[in-house]
Amino acid sequence: MKAADTEQSEETNSGWGRGGARLADLWLCLAVAGLVGLLVPLDDADLPLHLLTGDWIRAHAALPVVEPFAWTRAGAPYFAYSWLPQLAYSWAWQLGGANALSLLHSALLMGVVWAIWDLARVAQWSLWSTRLMLSLHMLLWMFVQPATRPQLVLAVALPIAWASAFRVRHNRHILSACAALICASAVAVNSHLLFPLMAAPVVVLLGATPVRRSLVAMWVGCLLLGWLCTPYLFQLPALFRLNFGYNALFNAASPVMEHEAGFVFVTHAAVGTALVVTLLLLQPLLPSFAARVSRERWWYGLSWAAGLVLFGLAIRGLLLWWLLALPVVAWSIAALPLPRTRLVQRVLPWAWGVGVVGMLGQPLRLRAEQGATRLELPHPEARALAPVVAWLECAAPSRDLAAMRREAGVERAVMKGTASFNTGSYLAWAVPYVSWSIDGRTIFPDSVARPEARQELRLGAMLHPPLHDVQVVVLPVAHATNALLAASQEWRRVVLPPADSVAAYALWWRTRDAEGGKEAVSPSIARCHEASAR
């Protein structure tokens, strides 16, 4: 049986014409996704740096091409490849703070739902393929990847690209499909470094029998036209070299969890993550895949294999693997036998609906847990760093934090600071008048990246982060460099009130005065200690 016949058979048997039920499914999923976006805490570790970069772009009315923040990379090339969502985050934050940012996140999650539903409609997935794919897509992008991140844009753009390929293949609304592809690829190239994955849906056209080269050329042309719409067009080769080159924080043995090799991560991952990996791994072995014509198996299998490679390199590739295997997974779900008992057939839709609504449980719990906090911007380390931030605000008072964030940069910094990978992003946003040594990016030189990797992994000889010409150091209390600073006559540890019961971070202030103990507060900055205690 030809692929076109198979698709027509699926459409007829599933009763796709009864669109009301599916429309109700869509509205239910949209409502749940929107509420989850409003409820989930904005506590992603990289969000502060995204906000700061967006502020910088707005203030300078230009995109950075030279390192704007970290003194350890002063003068080095830097490309804000996620500038479009970063600009949106910055505008949202200015308009309404955390509430407006939650609204933006809610809109993106609703876009994720709409994109996968539109793909299901165009690709003629069966009823339960649509429902289960909606559920799995929501679970992955709301809970495996719950953060407000530019990567979420790919969860909207790539399904749009898949849908456009199916429309072109079946000669359905070709002009609108091409327009959607151009817009989606333009948004993707300005939102995420892995925008080339947008080319994967071309397998829909290459897998057709016969292959219509004119349609393939038209689809690829629209894709490339969208990619041309980036201010970094002529810097793309340098951008890829910079971000995919060797880095100690980007190796297979990485202290950054999302860069851990995928199959290594699965050995200690949660059951849900392991099940998703198993589902994706089994796809080429299932009868639903074998039933496709040979050309389709080769081309769709190539897209699946690309996702497998990305996942093998790093656990963050799991969601990308899912996006690259969407049609293949839908085939396997459509092949599942449906229950024939009337009672079960009546109960299943209600059970599915209850399961979708049940996705609100975890966001509600997280919101309740963080309801008592009064942090301006939630962050995994924000509470522990609160005394540090209060003390630094006193030691180097700023005129206007919002203005300082717009003007933040190496040249305008009041002082230089050394921090750790997990805290640099938040400190760069919370204390913008200090240029910090490292933040949540992985493009730092070996002098910065190697000490961080050695300290976290305890592999190889111990290395210390850069301390030359630095006025302030903020490190975890268990960090090995604290002993080096304690033995030096140039550094004094500031005694801070613990954020909870035990201080999590040590704050060191450079002073030429070697008198007094290392745990004492200099009389000239005693008022800052009092401010942090309040």
Any overview of this molecule?
This protein folds into 2 domains: 3-40 and 112-242 and 249-360, no CATH class; 382-533, no CATH class. 58% of the residues lie in helices and 4% in strands. The protein contains 24 helices and 5 strands. It has a 5-stranded mixed β-sheet with strand order 2-1-3-5-4. Helix 21 (421-430) links the parallel strand 1 (415-418) and strand 2. Helix 2 (19-39) runs antiparallel to helix 4. The radius of gyration is 26 Å and the shape is globular. Mean pLDDT is 83; it is low at 1-21 and 513-524.
Search tags:
534 residues, mainly alpha, five-stranded mixed beta sheet, globular
Q: How far do the termini sit from each other?
A: 74 Å
Question: Whole-number radius of gyration?
Answer: 26 Å
The DSSP helix count reads 24
Number of strands: 5
Q: Provide the spatial order of strands within the biggest beta sheet.
A: 2-1-3-5-4
Instruction: Give me the strand/helix succession.
Output: HHHHHHHHHHHHHHHHHHHHEHEHEHEEH
Low-confidence regions: 1-21, 513-524
Count of the separate structural domains:
2
Structural class: mainly alpha
Shape label? globular
Characterize the main sheet. Answer: 5 strands, mixed
The share of residues in extended strands comes to under 5%
Mean pLDDT: 83
Helix share of residues?
55-70%
